[in-house]
Amino acid sequence: MYKVLLLNDDYTPMDFVVVxxxxxxxLDRERATVVMLQVHREGRGVCGVYPRDVAATxxxxxxxxxRQHQHPLVCVMEEN
Length: 80
Prior knowledge:
Layout: E1 2-7, H1 14-25, H2 29-42, E2 44-50, H3 52-68, E3 74-79
Antiparallel strand pairs: 1-2, 1-3
Helix pairs in contact: 1-2
């Protein structure tokens, strides 16, 4: 299993991070806000834990979506 994480940056709006968490990780607004604040305060936040292929797909989808919206948000995965 692999953790999918978002990394903090100084440019991506907090609202966009919440949208990403809702859209790609099916979090409700309250839980997405908690994870977004974790990213903001601690530098990274766990979006979910998935099998390797699912984690890799989510990582790529988020990174592509962020670039399409001109945000430097970075999504990574690491073994759990």
